[in-house]
Design brief:
Elements: H1 10-20, H2 23-28, E1 31-32, E2 39-41, E3 47-49, H3 51-58, E4 64-66, H4 85-101, E5 110-113, H5 130-134, H6 139-155, E6 160-161, H7 185-200, E7 211-217, H8 236-243, H9 245-252, E8 257-260, E9 264-265, E10 268-269, H10 274-284, E11 290-292, H11 297-302, H12 311-321, E12 326-327, H13 331-341, H14 347-363, H15 374-380, H16 384-397, E13 399-403, E14 417-420, H17 446-454, H18 458-461, E15 462-465, H19 478-487, E16 490-496, E17 507-508, E18 515-516, H20 542-550, E19 556-561, H21 569-574, E20 577-580, H22 588-596, E21 651-659, E22 662-664, E23 669-677, E24 683-693, E25 704-713, E26 718-725, H23 727-730, E27 732-733, E28 739-740, E29 744-751, E30 758-765
Parallel strand pairs: 1-12, 4-5, 5-6, 6-7, 7-8, 8-11, 14-15, 14-16, 16-19, 19-20, 22-30
Antiparallel strand pairs: 2-3, 9-10, 13-20, 17-18, 21-23, 23-26, 24-25, 24-29, 27-28, 29-30
Helix pairs in contact: 1-14, 4-15, 6-7, 6-15, 6-16, 7-9, 12-13, 16-22, 17-22
Protein name: Beta-glucosidase
Enzyme class: hydrolase
Pfam families: Fn3-like, Glyco_hydro_3, Glyco_hydro_3_C
């Protein structure tokens, strides 16, 4: 059987295998049931495949399993009934062995896992969430993180991940803002390329490589009103220049899998858009991987979008548009056979999709090495190297928004420190969504990070009070919080939001700060998938608690832990020091302490524009010049601009020049600027280059980020930073919908954020 001959080209092996398959076996390759339902674990630890899995395998096979090792409240996999890193690898081997040995052709299963900030399995390293990662402005660091995530996931048999998220955010009220890198397409594209290179490595069949799945294709971050899955209203020019750019760059970098988005664009659902999935993805970009839907997306074609009158029509619409696999749904399994018999699809349509799935399995080496090494999983997952990497990513992603009077860094010898707020000691609140259950002590909270930094005196010098919850109007914890604050010399307020689901951890006694296991569901989730908001204010009574503590006249530092921007004018006006940590992961508390006490000089920069109030939305920095007039009540200036972030040192920009100053349309110029660390501390600066097209055949953004570089400078050190500006930085989508560099004047601005910097003009001649 040629398909089992590893020396043959993949095309020959696919062709041979396809010729041997029945229609039922082909359809089986396009379905992906829930993996955690494919096995059971006995009290003695023995893993067995379920009867349901056996039946589906006997009926034609299973191409892939989703989230086999996923653990969270949805899967009902807990620390008690879940699998250790070694057991997880052993379980995947049991399932894989049964599939190969009990199917006619022995086709291996593709195990797909969630890994947006680490493998969503028990014991895996929990890295910072993508919004924190984006705020590092350090794609190379993210590439290293992705290598670690790939190594941990593949060691347990996971061969594909449903990340990175490449959605470009328009409205931060959207609950999935936390899963993105930010609002700028160039920045997202840089992290997209890093993700593909880091996850997939040099070759897909390596023991530490993972198939990257780009999602959500496309326009998902531009939904109406910031509501998850709502319609998207945009023209093709904006779609290509903004939303599709990161996907195109990732495909050019070698991405081999794409996930369709739930939303529609101008009336056409992405899951049935042949324009997106065939004309753009395959014909224009040359993509040769496979396309998978989001969970239940084909169902929406019949019940939601209502572009299909039957299940057969829905399945056919998706398949003929270019979908190759259905994630966790039943539409392909139930309706594809009927769709074939009724003439909605042809066997060639079916063979095309199946061939793409089989080709990917060959590329991943699943036919030749279908099993994983449990001993390696035990060594790699959650290792010290990865934990230290998680701490570094968190430290580089935390943004210093305000430091009036140099309140920060704190003096380690400061007397007593009160750590107050609902996020001061709430482990799951600082991890974000798509997180597995965590054993006690695994997560370093803000309180624990400060205690560890202070050391042996922490029991007497570090005071703690939760004060209140994220949500709810209970003030019963105010008195204890105020008492702690009154006794302290400085107060650290850990407030914000949460996308933590209910892990059965109980609640916190607001009067004492002690954990209380009540058996009742306790979740403060106000962000995450499907959790969209109409405002950006703090929820509950958090602001009221902060205002009461402020009245004591003590130095106060606010640490935001949250998944979307917060608009609280009172805090910006009255609190002298503010840190934005987003969701900083399992080592977040240590990273925050490192910054609070000055061991780490903050270098994070915003990847979202933070408005003064929600009524300014949308307020993305790269808005068109023709954005209209100001509001009656307020202007269009943000509270904190895109790219913004403070440091404990100062940076000076000078000697900006562009050479040559005039270039042809296909030429390029070198932009150079000297950056000097003129302050007292070593630190890293994010040097940002923006381009403004002063006159064009179509309307253009007022400015657009086109390059950036994070540079480390010792105190007093200067360095010349060089960028190349050429067609890629200057082109636009013209009236004929083709990319072109038009003659004319361009303003090049280089500086520390989207508002400040040195400027010089560059001329393009036709």
């Amino acid at each position: 059987m040629n398909y089992k001959n590893a020396s043959l080209p993949i095309e020959r092996r696919v062709e041979d295998l396809l010729a041997r398959m029945t229609v039922e076996e082909k359809i089986g390759q396009l379905i992906q049931p829930f993996g955690w339902k494919a096995y059971t674990r006995s009290d003695d630890g023995t893993i067995r495949v379920t009867d349901e899995f056996k039946q589906q395998l006997a009926e034609g096979g299973i191409g892939s399993l989703y989230g086999t090792l996923r653990a969270d409240p949805w899967t009902e996999v807990t620390l008690e009934n879940g699998l250790s890193p070694r057991e997880g690898a052993e379980a995947v081997n049991v399932i894989q062995r049964y599939a190969i040995e009990h199917s006619r052709l022995g086709i291996p299963i593709l195990f797909g896992e969630e890994c947006s900030h680490g493998h969503m399995a028990i014991g895996a390293t929990v890295f910072p969430f993508p919004l924190t990662i984006g705020s590092t402005w350090n794609p190379e660091l993210f590439r290293s993180m992705c290598r670690a995530v790939a190594a941990e996931t593949r060691s347990q048999g996971g061969a594909a991940t449903y990340s990175p998220v490449l959605d470009v955010v328009r409205d931060p009220r959207w609950g999935r803002t936390e899963e993105t890198f930010g609002e700028d397409p160039h920045l997202v594209a840089e992290f997209a390329v890093a993700a593909v290179q880091g996850l997939q490595g040099d070759r897909l069949d390596a023991e530490d490589s993972l198939l990257a799945t780009l999602k959500h294709f496309a326009g998902y971050g531009a939904s109406e009103g910031g509501r998850n899955g709502a319609p998207v209203h945009m023209g093709l020019r904006e779609l290509h220049e903004i939303d599709l750019l990161p996907f195109r760059k990732a495909v050019e970098a070698g991405a081999q899998s794409v996930m369709t988005a739930y939303n529609e664009i101008d009336g056409v659902p992405c899951t049935s858009s042949r324009y997106l999935l065939h004309d753009v993805l395959r014909e224009a970009w040359g993509f040769d991987g496979f396309v998978i839907t989001d969970c239940g997306a084909i169902d929406m074609l019949k019940s939601g979008h209502n572009t299909a009158a039957s299940g057969e029509e829905a399945a056919a619409q998706a398949l003929t548009a270019g979908v190759d696999m259905e994630m966790s749904g039943s539409m392909f399994r139930v309706y594809l056979r009927q769709a074939l018999e009724q003439g909605h699809i042809t066997e060639d349509d079916l063979n095309t999709a199946v061939g793409r799935v089989l080709a990917m399995k060959f590329r991943l080496g699943l036919f030749d090495r279908p099993y994983t090494d449990p001993e390696r999983a035990e060594k790699v997952i959650g290792c010290e190297e990865h934990i230290e990497l998680a701490r570094r990513v968190a430290a580089e992603g935390i943004v210093l928004l305000k430091n009036e009077g140099n309140v920060l860094p704190l003096n380690p010898k400061t007397g007593k420190i009160a750590v107050i707020g609902p996020n001061a000691n709430a482990p799951y609140n600082q991890l974000g969504d798509y997180t597995s259950p965590q054993p006690p002590g695994q997560i370093i909270t803000v309180l624990e990070g400060i205690r560890r930094y202070i050391g042996e005196d922490a029991d007497t010098r570090v005071l703690y009070a939760p004060g209140c919850r994220i949500q709810g109007d209970s003030r019963e914890g105010f008195s204890h919080a105020l008492a702690c604050a009154a006794e302290a010399d400085v107060i650290v307020m850990a407030i914000g939001g949460s996308s933590a689901r209910d892990f059965g951890e109980g609640t916190i006694d607001l009067r004492t700060g002690a954990s209380v296991v009540t058996g009742l569901a306790q979740s403060d989730m106000e962000c995450g998938e499907g959790i969209d908001r109409s405002t950006l204010h703090l929820m509950g009574v958090q602001l009221e608690l902060l205002q009461e503590i402020h009245k004591l006249g003590k130095p106060v530092v606010v640490v935001y832990i949250n998944g979307r921007p917060i608009t609280e004018p009172w805090i910006d006006e009255h609190i002298p020091a503010i840190l934005e940590a987003w969701y900083p992961g399992q080592e977040g508390g240590s990273a925050i302490a490192d910054i609070l006490f000055g061991d780490v000089n903050p270098s994070g920069r915003l990847t979202l524009t933070i408005p003064k109030e929600v009524g300014q939305l949308p307020i993305n920095y790269n808005a068109k010049r023709t954005r209209g007039k100001r509001y009656l009540e307020t202007d269009l200036e943000p509270r904190y601009p895109f790219g913004y972030g403070l440091s404990y040192t100062d940076f000076h920009y000078g000697n900006l020049n562009v050479e040559p100053a005039v270039i042809p349309a296909d030429g390029s110029a070198a932009v150079r600027i000297v950056v000097t660390n003129s302050g007292p501390r070593d630190g890293a600066e994010v040097v940002q280059l923006y381009v403004s097209d002063l006159a064009a055949s179509v309307t253009r953004p007022e400015k657009a980020l086109k390059a950036f570089s994070k540079v480390f400078l010792k105190a007093g050190e200067s360095r010349e930073v060089t960028f190349t500006v050429g067609p890629e930085q200057l082109e636009l989508i013209g009236p004929d919908m083709k990319a072109v560099v038009e003659p004319g004047e361009f303003r090049i601005r280089v500086g520390p954020d989207s508002k400040r910097g040195e400027a010089v003009n560059l001329r393009v001649e036709g």
